[in-house]
Design a protein that fits this description.
The chain is α+β, with helices and mostly antiparallel strands and 305 residues long. It has 6 helices and 14 strands.
Length: 305
């Protein structure tokens, strides 16, 4: 079978160890890499061997595959191969290499891949996706090193009750939210057989203030109790927003959020003396307030039967 090879290179304005750590910590990818939606660590041998289940955009579609990674921190190299590739990929492997260059780093990103049926047209299509995603990931990596101070994580927990299945169903069936959740004005929802949803939603702040705004998200349903999502159309003050709902057996739900603020929007929102901490607190009240309002409304619906 024919094997195609690609190589992409970028210079990142940060020390090699810093850049390597960003690549090695795959849990950060959804908030850093624009194509990545969600990464799940799977059971693997201890040490430098890892197995990851990855959901990411391939064009307009979200694909899922499993990769095995070998981390070599001393050489700042990470090798990977897909053990469960997504069609039409027949095989895929590659490596990240981070090379010190003074105060900066040179990142080399290589792929080797084959197409199902050794189909040349499919191979061309795979190469186009690899090229587009590799360029996007490297550019995201370059920008991420200057945005570490703009990362805000927070979570809220609400004892919804009613049991895991019922609460998970309420959260998963977002198409019904406009008639159920006051701060949701409009929803357009599609879902594929793999549980990947595309959600466009108009919302207002749960406090009732502010204008309505539109967000677009991709969500992955992971029964029995988890939904993860990534916003692809964002409010003007954010570079990134990823999050999740985790529903326990008794219905208690934890809503987690990770956002990356836009530094240039902070003073525009809050004035020339505003700080990142103040902007983070505002975002926490706005985004966290809406998710808590959703969960409290879910509790009312559970109680009502």
């Amino acid at each position: 079978m024919r094997t195609r090879q690609t190589q992409h290179v970028i210079t990142v304005p940060a020390a090699a160890d810093t850049v390597y750590d960003l690549i090695a910590d795959a849990a950060r990818w959804p908030a850093i890499f624009t194509p990545t939606v969600h990464v799940e660590y799977l059971p693997s041998a201890p040490g430098d061997e890892q197995r990851l289940r990855i959901w990411a955009f391939a064009g307009s579609a979200v694909k899922c595959w499993v990769s095995h990674r070998t981390l070599d921190g001393a050489a700042r190299r990470i090798g990977f191969r897909q053990t469960e590739p997504a069609s039409p990929v027949a095989a895929m492997r590659g490596e990240w290499t981070v090379i010190p260059s003074g105060a900066e780093s040179r990142v080399v990103f290589r792929h080797w891949f084959r197409a199902e049926g050794d189909d040349a047209t499919l191979l061309d299509g795979i190469e186009a996706v690899v090229d587009r995603n590799s360029r996007a990931e490297l550019e995201s990596l370059r920008l991420a090193v200057g945005r570490a101070h703009l990362l805000v994580d927070f979570e809220d927990e609400v004892a919804v009750g009613g049991g895991q299945q019922k609460v998970f169903g309420l959260l998963a069936e977002a198409g019904k939210w406009p008639g159920l959740i006051p701060h949701v004005a409009r929803v357009e929802l599609t879902e594929d057989p793999q549980g990947v949803q595309h959600l466009e939603m108009d919302t207002v702040e749960s406090s009732g203030g502010g204008d309505a705004h539109t967000t677009v998200s991709v969500r992955v349903l992971l029964p029995p109790g988890t939904i993860v999502y990534k916003q692809t159309t964002l409010p003007a003050f954010l570079h990134a927003h990823v999050g999740s709902w985790h529903v326990r057996e008794d219905g208690t739900t934890v809503a987690r959020h990770r956002v990356v603020l836009k530094e240039e929007a902070i003073t525009a929102m809050l004035g020339p003396a505003a700080t990142v901490a103040q902007a983070g607190a505002l975002v926490r009240r706005s985004i966290g307030g809406n998710s808590v309002a959703t969960l409290r409304r879910a509790r009312e619906l559970v109680v009502a039967g």
